[in-house]
Amino acid sequence: MAVGLNIGVPWIMCKQADALDPIINTCNGYYCDGFVPNKDYKPKIWTENWGAWLSEFGGTYRYRPVEDMAFATLKFIQKNGTFVNYYMYHGGTNFGRTSGRFVTTSYDYDSPIDEYGLIREPKWSHFRNMHQAIKQSEIALLWSNPTVTWPGKNLEVHTFEAGPHNCAAFLANYNLDSSATVNFRDTQYNLPAWSISILPDCKNEVFNTAKVTVPTTQPKMLPTGGTFNWQSYTEATPSIGSWKTFAANGLKGQLPTTWDHTDYLWYTTDVTIDSNEAFLKYGQLPILTVESAGHALSAFINGQLAGIAYGNSQTPQFTTSEKVKLQAGVNKIALLSSSVGLPNIGTHFEQWKIGLNSVTLKGVNAGTWDMSKWKWTYKIGTEGEDLKLYTSEGSSKVSWVDGSESAIKKPLTWYKATFDAPDGNEPLALDMNTMGKGEVWINGQSIGRHWAGNKAFGKCNKCSYVGFFNEVKCQAGCGQPSQRWYHVPRSWLWQKGNLVVVFDEWVGSVSYDGKAILINGKRRLLISGSIHYPRSTPDMWPDLINKAKEGGIDVIETYVFWNGHEPSKGQFNFEGRFDLVQFIKLIQKAGLYAFLRIGPYVCAEWNFGGLPVWLNYVPGIAFRQNNEPFKAAMQSFTEKIVDMMKAENLFEPQGGPIILAQIENEYELMEWGIGSIGKQYAEWAAKMAVGLNIGVPWVMCKQHDAVDPIINACNGYYCEGFVPNKDSKPKMWTENWGGWLSEFGGTFRYRPVEDMAFAVSKFIQKNGTFFNYYMYHGGTNFGSTSGRFVTTSYDYDSPIDEYGEHNSNPDAIHIFESEPQNCAAFLANYNQDSSATVTFRDTQYNLPAWSISILPDCKNEAFNTAKVTAHSIHPKMIPTGGTFNWYSYTEAPVSVGGTKTFAANGLKEQLSTTWDQTDYLCVTIQQDEAFLKHGQLPILTVESAGHALSAFINGQLVGTAYSHGNLNTPQITFSEKVNLQAGVNKISLLSSSVGLQNIGTHFEQWKIGILGPVTLKGVNAGTMDMSKWRWTYKIGMEGEDLKLYTSEGSSKVRWEDGSGLAIKKPLTWYKATFDAPDGNEPLALDMNTMGKGEVWINGQSIGRHWAGNKAVGKCNKCSYVGLFTEGKCQVGCGQPSQRWYHVPRSWLVPKQNLVIVFDEWGGDPSGISFIKRTI
């Protein structure tokens, strides 16, 4: 057919090996030197020398080093190629909706002339120089065949001679890792690796592919300085029977319905929910699942955006499942399917489908509704397209709003503004970095689809020109929008009164680049502070958040505590201190951002690292490794949290405050310890998290090999030396440790404010742009939530103390309060023993030792880390003046055959017996061997895996044992002489845990309790090993069984007072009633006269008390100068590790509050007093 058209020039068929004569078959690709035409009389033609690769929404920018492209071209020429076409030489722009499937509006293609028509250097000039060298060799190349020689390994010379005066030579070095010297016709030529030199006269080298002599140009995208006065119009989701709709049974294909006149097709239906639906009563939201053939989807329930989903160029199909809020009665489900260009390659690509395939609703009384064959209402395109809002005439058809009422982060919104043409003649573009997905028009002409909300995913490593190129070898822009700038041709503009219209079907975005987190396209230097919601009470949350805001905090960070939310499998708790949604909403109300560290392993000195104990007894489970039972449970909980946040629109792209999320926690040490199964698990966790499509970046702290697009981050006292694992990721400090945890038996560890400020400033001056104080408010480990040996207080020497009061002036720490300037300087003195004078720009500045000064304008010192201008605050613990009228009840050690006991041979491990429902496990045995007393008492020895032990003989306490101030060695040995009588003796051993391990490889396998041996030495038989005898067990205390800590439970026993009050008697419960102290100062109980146990106020546990455990450490005077460690600054040696116990005022009623104290050792309750914390 083509030949029959008689056009007078040859026809070509590229990549068509069997092209019929006279058609010339040709080559396309990155390299075509090996191509041979299908007939000897046809020339060797390269129709597409691919200069890079196309850019796709969701993909990176692919570029090709100029050295390799020149190398490929000369390889082709030296192998008798005579026609080369650069694809592309100028790529240009896919204006309107002209781009192929998922192809960006920009078609730059890394071309010698860029999208805007500007020369790209060095590519343009290097090619020009090569072209000149080729043309100088033209006669020899066209009128001779080469002679090929091989002067060395991976070296090759092609010599072309067409008579005595026309000689050209191509000298090639194919080595990938070394340059080479080639001797040609008695002259030596140096060739870099992977390069070719041209000698047009067989003598003088005029060009080498790897010797680039032209500097690289770095185009700048400079704001013009003008601003837009935007107006907005938000269209509603279409209703059944509304304008330009039609109905049909089943789901229609999008392309045969729209004929590609628009990217959009609405699918709308009504769902009637009966008031008897179980999910309305029990809160388990139904799940809407949509299977789509592509390309993107926005789901709306009753007019509210419920979720978005989209595919990619390789797999445009996707399935999305979202929990949706439906109400009793009629609910409108509106699904907006959008295409992103049509396929342009592939077998029968014209038959490929787009649009929805199936829709189901799971979780209704009937099980699952398949809605795919229901009657649906369809609307082709958006309302704004119908009205042509992108034109001057069309834009007058609706009412636009502006100013404070203009829609921000609202889906289905049109924006318009007018502007004058910027001065000059430079190419123009729109920076769309703050937008989501849609289209842009200038004076009625579409400049194309925008999709800044789709971030680039790929592998952005440093790229060498050496070696064969492919489309994934050289990538840039990971984590950034696939396209940020959109070309606006100047020829489309008038001098005055131009109209720009933007349609955005999505909302805002959070992303990152190699410098910072980007919120709606703007780089942000973010200061974050950790406040863990269950470590304070809901009534404290607003004040804590506001104090953080006043202290200069931008972001509130919190872990999510799995064992607090799911204490029993399938039984969830999101109330009270565990009302995570309310906490996040309060952060939003205060105008701050949130960083949600889901984990769900959190460490955090929290019981079992935040993992529920029941999880340890799932068959076949192994924590935090490539183990299917663990991954299934972890994914289920992670999805639950994500679904909750999505349902409440709490992620930033939904208009919420959450800008970052974290998966796993400090995993790299475990990964190193367990090897490949750890690496596999880390990669799985990352991919699982990314697949949840939350619209904000994910973080993995202390995870050097975090896979893209996860950001790896630093934890520690100093992080200025930390480097992210990719240049495309920002430098983040997720935990700036402000002190250290307190342990029973340990001192209080504090960190000088000067050093902490110094560490922050060092981090910022080394390009850090996100840091989080761990903790900003530490709070209280209420109940049994603390990790092993961790005190009930989690104060952590934070800027806001355990009670919610200022621990120090926040301005002493938060250092960036001035308006941003174009110049800022950090002056540092790292000397530890002397101050220094620094001259900077002709001005002298005095810097104390170990300090940094900040000059926000490069002139005036606004802050120095060591110049603390705020006075130190010394909180006072003042008695309220009231006294308690105590009553006591002492329970007896457990008897063999007692109530709620069971017997077993041998010693049972404590955690697997109690499942951490209590700290206590009592073990009892009777032995009836007669003992003849000769004054030498036998010795009872008990080996325990921890944490504390009380031993009773015939009901009398004979001794206690516990690990003294050593978190790392909880194992104990009890060995005491015991007074046994002839006949039957009862030995009762009370083993108590003090929190579960929360860190370490396979910590879930660590044991607690009496594991043996248990021996009695000095009897007639010598030594009795009682470890395998039959023991009687009781889980917990009698008082716990009776719930003596409640009003109802406390009425079940007889209490003693007055002369009958038990003093320093083990296993004693104390109760008293009191009225709430006057005032609003924070309250605490002074437990200094007590031993070890737990305290309850009105039935709620304020935590473990252990004033009998005195602090061991090194309490010396501490200087801020020099590197800080957790052992450097200590106070409280010889005192109780914790004396005062926080009592939230919200737990009190005005009159007749009930306080219950259990003391397993025995104490003097007369010394307990209420304390007010004042400043």
TrEMBL record:
Subcellular location: Secreted, Extracellular space, Apoplast
Catalytic activity: Hydrolysis of terminal non-reducing beta-D-galactose residues in beta-D-galactosides
Entry EC no(s): 3.2.1.23
GO cellular component: apoplast
Gene Ontology biological-process entries: carbohydrate metabolic process
Pfam families: BetaGal_gal-bd (PF21467), GHD (PF17834), Glyco_hydro_35 (PF01301)
PROSITE patterns given in the database record: GLYCOSYL_HYDROL_F35 (PS01182)
Domain Glycoside hydrolase 35 catalytic span(s) in chain numbering: 2-133, 517-807
Database matches in PANTHER family: BETA-GALACTOSIDASE RELATED
Family: Belongs to the glycosyl hydrolase 35 family.
Full protein name: Beta-galactosidase
